[in-house]
Design a protein that fits this description.
The protein is of the alpha/beta class. It is 35% helix and 23% strand. The chain folds into two domains: 146 residues, Periplasmic binding protein-like II (D-Maltodextrin-Binding Protein, domain 2, 3-Layer(aba) Sandwich); 89 residues, 3-Layer(aba) Sandwich (D-Maltodextrin-Binding Protein, domain 2). The strands form four sheets. Strands 5-1-6-15-7 form a five-stranded mixed sheet. The protein has a five-stranded mixed sheet with strand order 11-10-12-9-13, with helices on both faces. It has a three-stranded antiparallel sheet with strand order 2-3-4, with helices on one face. Helix 2 packs antiparallel against helix 9. The radius of gyration is 20 Å and the shape is globular. The relative contact order is 0.19. The N terminus is likely disordered.
Amino acid sequence: MKKILLILVVAAMFAPAAMVFGQTGPTITVATDATWPPMEFVNTSKQIVGFDIDLLNAAAKAGGFQVKFQDTAWDGIFAGLGNGDYDAVISSVTITDQRKKVMDFSIPYLNAGQVLIVRSNMSGVSSLADLKGQAAGAQIGTTGAMEINKVPGVTLTTYDEIGLAIEDLVNGRIAGVVCDNPTAANYVLQNDNYKDKLKIVGKPFTEEYYGVAVRKGNSRVLNMINQGLQVVLNNGTEQALEAKWLR
């Protein structure tokens, strides 16, 4: 009995701070900024739902672990990951070389390039360069903001939430919004408040992949997530979720 207790104590010492072990496998705490429909958002029943949520829950079932989601503001989400406040982040996080320097990523699970949204009555605009002399909006710290900064003559306006950028676009305060294609599709194609007022112009101008972020060196959680993700990417679950949330 003492040996068993000793093994459990040692295992707990080396487990990530947010990980909890139970009879049905370990439970990991995963942060998400639930303001990015259809990827992650809070529904009318106050539940966090969306493509990312369904995907990771399916991966957890396939990989033999459970997930507890924690709604976390984007501007501090990666700092919290580094501090060990939670085990992972799934929040439409694009895998970039810069981010890989400070955190580890799961295998990619969705290709989601950046697109430009403008008002429906705007003509002669097919790329960011066509907004020279005007302002374009993006959520702070995102690859959308990075792309706007690359275009000479276009002023970047940042927002805590992408919905605030969309509102400013509709009201004429900015000329365009850059965001991930799934997010753009949600506002332009699926939201009754905006689909007649906005349009996506051109094609995705980046090739980007989403991944689940974990603290640098946390191979235990990373391997667990990858094992489950690989199953759902191969068995048709991911494609079914795309049809549910993104089409």
